[in-house]
Amino acid sequence: MKNNKIITNQKSSIAALLPILVFLALFFGSGIILKDFYKMPAIVGFLAALFVAFMQNRDLSFNEKLSVMSRGAGHENIMIMSLIFLLAGAFSGSVKAAGGVESTVNLGLSILPSNIAVVGLFLIGCFISLSMGTSMGTIAALAPIAVGISEKTGFGIELCIGAVVCGAMFGDNLSMISDTTIAAVRTQGCAMKDKFRQNFFIVLPAAIITAFILFMRTSGGSFAIEQNLDYSLLRIFPYIIVLAGAIFGMNVFALLVMGTVISLGVGVFQGTFAFSEIFGIVGDGVSGMFEITVLSIIIGGTVEIVKENGGINAILNIIKSKVNSTKGAEFGIAFLASAVDICTANNTVAIVMAGPIAKEISDEFGVDPKRSASILDIFTSVFQGIIPYGAQLLTAASLTGITPFDIMPNLYYPILMGVSAIIFIAMRKEVKVEKSKSAA
Q1: pLDDT per residue over 328-365, tens digit each?
Q2: Can you tell me the distance from the alpha carbon of 166 to that of 28, in angstroms, rounded to the nearest whole number?
Q3: Most CB contacts within 10 A, which of 2, 214, 252, 347?
Q4: Triad 65, 69, 72: Cα angle to 5°
Q5: Are residues 380 and 338 in contact, defined by beta-carbon separation less than 8 angstroms?
Q6: What's 408's DSSP letter?
Q7: Integer angstrom CA distances of residue 189 from 210, 242, 255
């Protein structure tokens, strides 16, 4: 028989937000004290938050709280999102093992004129990140090339690696297999192709202006590539298939499975790896997504308890007291996403955390799911691309021997992406929404 106590109620309580505040305090505090925001795994912080959540609300027994947590952790969106994460890992691992990343980089360097070398770094970064779905992988692949171009052209390494980070954040925000896109789409309940189209036209002006700025700053430089740039169009083919299929609305599960199979087939056909190795390659790719998958499940359970205790309603009531229109709601979602990413230094975690709250705001004020998904993804990517303690800038700095603060003045794309998104929200037609009465 259903227990009425564990049916989500409509009470509002600021105190119910304590678990989230505990996580932010632990994660942000340890990052400041240890001078490394990745010393403490996010999963540890959320387990502490979950423990705090279980200590609250004496109206529910421990078993009832377990039921509430399980309901959130096993929610349809969380489970689908987790499965997509694992399939995306399988595809990324397979196409990388088949040589797709190296071929894509070499193809880009081969066809771009040397007098637009830095612009080329940005454009290649855009394509690789859009194909791979990872900004970190893009930065790791292109950082050595950025160093070489800097040495041969005389342009500062901070500008060259800045162009790489800009390109990496383009695909991190847009790619169909990016964990941020997957999280945004699943938490907001929209089709991936709809989010892509909406998002693309928001960030396209930012990408064009970024390329123009880089061109104006570097058009006089050139370089000669001495190493052999071998590439295979066949190795790039899986990326193209996945991108095209996603744009045309192919089912994401079928698309990722097909991309993985094609990648493995290409690798075996070209002798990159033996048939007997394919299971290990897929396994390595999948295992790379274990952390974010488990984290998503824990966050889902924690947020459900916070919601049951009235925390989500408390946030909604605060937002509703400040805005009364769809435009205001969209700015509220943008602020929420930005604030959580600044605190967590992880845009995927930020989306998984802020997603359920953003969905409640969207439903309350009539925001289209594809718009809320785009806003979530864009604003977390904006700050993820510019905070000096984020993994992207830390990685870029460590691979080039400079500091994140050296790179920050050259991060045109993330800043312009934020400006473009703000204009996109500001230009929408104002729709007044009558505020509903909050439950006690």
Answers
A1: 899 999 988 888 888 776 788 789 888 888 998 898 88
A2: 25
A3: 347
A4: 145
A5: yes
A6: G
A7: 31, 21, 19
Q: Is residue 172 part of a domain?
A: yes
Q: Report how far residue 73's alpha carbon sits from residue 301's, in angstroms, rounded to the nearest whole number.
A: 4
Q: Is 60 helix (H, G, I), strand (E, B) or coil?
A: coil
> If you search the block for the tokens 């999102």, which residue do you land on?
81
Q: Which domain holds residue 208?
A: 78-287
Q: Which residues of 77-105 are buried (b: 16+ CB within 10 A; e: fewer)?
A: bbeebbebbbbbbbbbbbbbbbbbbbbbb
Residue 133 falls in which region: left (phi positive, over 0), alpha (psi -120 to 50) or beta:
left
> What single string gives the DSSP state of each residue in 92-123?
HHHHHHTTHHHHHHHHHHHHS-GGGHHHHHHH
* 83, 256 Cβ separation under 8 angstroms: no
User: Contact, 106 vs 128, CB < 8 A?
Assistant: no
Residue 225 lies in a domain: yes
Give the separation between CA 165 and CA 316, rounded to whole angstroms: 35
Give the C-alpha separation, 56 to 16, whole Å. 8
> Is the pTM higher than 0.85?
no
In whole angstroms, give the CA distance from residue 438 to residue 440.
6
Number of domains in the chain: 1
Give the DSSP letter of residue 432.
B
The answer to whether residue 107 sits within a structural domain is yes
Strand partners, 277: none
Other beta carbons within 10 Å of 383: 21
Domain presence at residue 420 = no
Question: Per-residue pLDDT tens for 287-327?
Answer: 888 887 888 788 888 888 888 888 877 777 777 777 778 88
Helices of type H across 192-276? 192-218, 233-247, 252-269
**Which tokens go with 345?**
């230094």
For residue 439, the 8-state DSSP code is P
d(CA 188, CA 173): 15
Asked if residue 158 lies in contact with residue 406, where contact means CB atoms within 8 angstroms, the answer is yes
